[in-house]
Amino acid sequence: MRCLTAVLAVLFATLVAGTGFAQGDTPKGLFLTTDYPSQTVRAGEVTTIRLKLTNAGLPPEPVALALKDVPAGWKIDILGGGQPVAAAMPGVNQDVGLQLRVEVPKDAKPGSSKVLISAKGPIAQSVELPLTLTVGTETPAKLSIKSRLPSLRGTPRSAFEYTITVGNDSGKDLTVALSAQGPANFQTTFTEGFGSNEISSIPIEAGQTKDIKVKVTPPRDVKAGDYPVLVKVASEGATAELRVTLQVSGQGRLALSTRDGRLSGEAEVGKSSTYTLVLANDGTAPIEEVEMSGTVPTNWKVEFNPKTIPSLAPNEKKDVAVVVTPADKAIAGDYVASFRANGRGESASADFRITVTTSTLWGIVGVGIIAVALLVLLGAVARFGRR
Amino acid sequence: MADNVIEARGLLKLYGSQRAVDAIDLEIHRGEIFGLLGPNGAGKTTAILMMLGLTEISGGSVEVLGFNPVREPLEVKRRVGYLPDSVGFYDHLTARENLAYTARLLDIPRSQAGRRIMEALESVKLADVVDKRVATFSRGMRQRLGIAEIVMKQAEVAILDEPTSGLDPHATFELLEMIRGLKRTGVAVLLSSHLLDRVQSVCDRVALFNKGKIALMGTVVQLANQVLGAGHPILVEAQGIDVAAALRGVEGVQSVVPEGPQESGGGAWRVMADRDVRAAAAQRIVSAGGSLTRLADLQPSLEEVYTRYFQEARHAA
Amino acid sequence: MPRSAVRRAGSPFTGLRPVFMKELSDHLSSVRMLVLTLFVIVFGALPVGFALNDLRNVVVSDPYLFLRIFTVTPERVGLSFIEALNFIIPLMAIGLGFDSINSEFNRRTLSRVLSQPLYRDALLLGKFLGGLATLAVALVALWLIVLGAGLLLLGLPPRGVEVARGIGFLVVAIAYGGVWLAVAMLFSVIFRSTATSALCSLGLWLFFLILWPMIASVITVGFTPSQFTSIDQMVAVAELGQALERLSPNILFREAVVGLLNPETRSLGFMLPMQMRGAIPGAPLPLDQSLILIWPPLTGLIAGMIVLFTVAYIVFQREEVRA
User: Fold this and answer.
1) What is the CATH number of the domain that holds A43?
2) Are A54 and A31 in contact (CB under 8 A)?
3) Other chains touching A, judged by 3 or more CB pairs under 8 Å
């Protein structure tokens, strides 16, 4: 077994060596690297520079980290995991991320400074990373905005939700203000990607992107058509704009009421009473085939005239006569009748309070009974009276 | 005719098949006191009620002061005062209040009513108990209050039903006095009674009622003549003479009948003559040597008439 | 005999006014009335007092709070004011009427009064109206007392509608009293003995109060088939039972009063569940509808009063005046 392992190891080593040599370049050793070895920093600000200490094929060992040539007044720290560190120990073929926290004094003069970062292992060679930090004028923040679906289609009552991606393309964290500009009476709200909280601004780290939802609510009575909404993001002078489009298709909306809004009436037992309902289309598209129906107490009759309305254009009003006949044996008092209008996919209903009155016929009968009694009395007076 | 305040012609009242009042004819003159006499149940009250229109008339006619009580009972009742048999008053009211109620019923103006009530009560001597409750009144006082009601009413005719029944002699005397007082003020009085002797003294004319019929009608004297025979009866009591023989010769004497048990040598005789023979009779007895112990003009007693009449009626039956 | 052809002159109402005034003043000043008033106060005060006490603790705003004084059944008394009135009123009416004619006979005042220029018509009617007016005075006074107590203890005035319903209640109560007054007067005409007359009136009252509901239900049960074959049949039986009960003035009074003082009452009769479908529960009827609702019992009471009076009248007219 051991023998085999040794053989394999030798084989592997030769292989590696062979390929290495064949390719000619397989670095081995300790490397200290950064993405941008020459960077711009701003006076009075802290800039964080990412470093990477890579151990390629060496046994792990602590590597001491040091800075050289720090310009006067500058404060540079090496941070690892957020804490200042003095040494790092990358495993074999692994790397350790480090940050260089560069605090540039406010009065730093523009110009380039070289800073040397060295990493020195006890056995291995020492590596150095020269960084050129240029104190420059402020670089403008840069934002990007894009949407995968910038054009949505819906009815006036639909929710138009656009997911937009805002990117911070600058080297520093930004708080991005969000705004939108749409036609009059269009309401816009921003929410975080998956959250429900409404937001008006959002922080984005340097170089990162965030998804934001923009919800546009058009007014109910909006006409069919395309409506652009300009979504703007802005931060520290940087702005980005995105035009999203609402393609609003028309929709009808039914409303059932009476002319004076009073939803009550009187009806006499067994006699038909007519009320005039007003059916209106508050929507933006015509409604076809509106059918009237009603729910009334047992044994009552209800009829509509007209029973169906072939078409109701937007903003059109139509009087519908409803004839309610309480049952012959209905008892006086208040009842509820429900009237409904059903169009295609649209409906409206109104609860109508009907005060049922009974006929005064029985009252007349009662008077008649009294009259008969009085007649009997008068007859008695005529027959037996005045004694 | 104008002098008749009440005039009944064939007045009839039937209770079923029973004739309570059987076709009576009656006339009562203005200003007279007319007595309606007869036993209880003879139909006196029924006749009175018909005159007042208080009960139906089965036949015949009656007119009171020219009004027909059947047709115009209100007019009759307005002018006729009625004192029913054992009259009642509202016990919880005073005499004055009782009369005030009647005054309101009569529609007497308030301004006159008070004075008329007081005058009426004074006339029946009840002025001192004006404000006493009637509950405390004796029977006589109630009857007098009834008379006062008629006085207050200023009735032209007063109909009194058994006004003296149940009264003591003194109260009866007082009441009869008041009835005479009514007559003096020109009121015609119709009174009914079964107490003949009391009525006799005040009545100008009487009608004897029997079984719904008027048996006899007229003055007491006329009745006596009719029943007991016409003539002038006197009572003679003498001693020591044959009165009968002595008086038979007197002109006008029709009969001499012994009255009561005859004693030896004397007794009482009832002498019937066609004129007043008292002077002649006395002269004859004295001249015949008899001693005249009593000589009386025999007023015909209604009682006598009544008794005789019904005896005869019973005999006839 | 041309008896019926006889036309008597003069108004039958001649003398009505003095008779009426005398009866009214006699009643109002009589000891009997005092006793009846005490009776009413004792029987009326308890339910009203406890009802007011209960109502003061009611938090829910009630648009007909005042009417509740009449209708609420206080737990501690178990008798609402209107139920108390349901037997107080007949007692009062009987108390006022049971001796109205026969006492005149017995005191021998009748023929004397009738010999004054008035007809019996006026005497009987005057006595009836006098009794009715006395009842009305007593009831109005009672009503005002209850109203005043309500004002004082509830601290709010009744609304116009409530007052109107209250006045309607008074009318019903007076008509109800009139029925019993006519009953009592009928007996006072029939019987010369006041004791007999009072006994008969009270007996009839007890009959209608206690026995009649039982008899009505017994009769109804007799007409009930062993199994109902249709709803109509069931309704017919229920309506028969109700019609029988309504022969009692007590029931008529109760129905009329409940319909007036409980505005939520929609029907006095038997109601099918399907008649209530779609109805808004607890919605009060407007006053005119309540009036239509109670019209039959009210007219029944008034017509009954007139008919009973007519019977008493005929009997009285046919009687002989002589005692």
Assistant:
1) 2.60.40.2310
2) yes
3) B, C
Distance from CA of C303 to the nearest CA of B (A): 30
User: Which of A267, A268, A256 minimizes the C-alpha distance to A339?
Assistant: A256
The CA distance from C67 to C290, in Å, is 14
Q: How far is C127 from chain B (nearest CA, A)?
A: 14
Phi, psi of B28 (to 5 degrees): -120, 125
Q: What is the CATH number of domain B4-218?
A: 3.40.50.300
User: What does the domain layout of chain C look like in residue ranges?
Assistant: 16-318
* Distance between first and last Cα of chain A: 153
Domain boundary residue, one of A133, A160, A186: A133
Q: What DSSP element (H or E) covers A216?
A: strand A209-217
Residue A70 lies in a domain: yes
Span B243-283, pLDDT tens digits: 777 777 777 787 787 877 766 666 788 787 777 788 888 88
Domain ranges of chain B: 4-218, 226-303
Q: What is the CA radius of gyration of chain A?
A: 43
Please, how many CA atoms are within 13 Å of residue C72, restricted to the half-sphere of its CB? 22
Distance (Å, whole) CA B70 – CA B63: 9
Write the single-letter amino acid at A308: T
The answer to whether A363 touches C292, Cβ cutoff 8 Å, is yes
CB within 8 Å of C210: residues ≥ 6 apart? none
CATH number reported for the structural domain that contains residue A176 in this entry: 2.60.40.10
Question: Measured between alpha carbons, how far is A161 from A182 in angstroms, rounded to an integer?
Answer: 14
The residue length of chain A stands at 387
HSE toward the beta carbon, residue C219, CA cutoff 13 A: 14
Pick from A194, A218, A248: which residue ends a domain? A248
Quick check: is A378 in a domain?
Answer: no
As its CATH architecture, domain B226-303 has 2-Layer Sandwich (3.30)
Q: What is the pLDDT of residue C59?
A: 65
Question: Which chain C residue shows the shortest CA-CA distance from B155?
Answer: C116
Shortest CA distance from B13: residue in chain C: C1
CA distance B207 to B32: 13
- Average pLDDT for B116-144: 93
**3-state SS, residue A387:** coil
Cβ proximity of C6 and B71 under 8 Å: yes
Decide if A106 touches B, using CB distance below 8 A: no
ipTM of the complex model: 0.85
Structure tokens at B97: 């209040």
Concatenating the DSSP letter of every residue in C197-237 gives: HHHHHHHHHHIIIIIHHHHHHHHHHHH--SS---HHHHHHH
Of the candidates B145, B182, B143, B181, the residue with the CA atom closest to the CA atom of residue B163:
B143
State the smallest CA–CA distance between residue A383 and chain B in angstroms.
13
Domains in chain A, number = 3
- Each residue's pLDDT tens digit, A255-282: 888 888 888 888 888 888 899 999 888 8
Q: Are residues A289 and A262 in the same domain?
A: yes
Tell me the C-alpha distance between C123 and C129, whole Å: 10
Whether C193 contacts chain B with CB within 8 A? no
Report CA-CA distances (Å) from A321 to A272, A307, A343, B190: 12, 9, 17, 87
Tell me how many degrees the CA angle C302-C308-C310 measures, rounded to the nearest 5.
Answer: 105
Taking an 8 Å cut-off on Cβ atoms, the answer to whether B89 and C109 are in contact is: yes
The two beta strands, A38-41 and A126-135, are parallel
Q: Tell me which DSSP letter residue B185 carries.
A: T
Give every CB contact of residue C223 below 8 A, 6+ residues apart in sequence. C237, C240
> What pLDDT score does B114 carry?
93
Strands B291-297 and A187-192: unpaired
* Rounded Cα–Cα distance for residues B88 and B97 (Å): 14
Phi then psi for residue C66, to 5 deg, are -65, -40
| Residue located via tokens 């711009």 | A40
Note down the domain range covering A279. 254-357
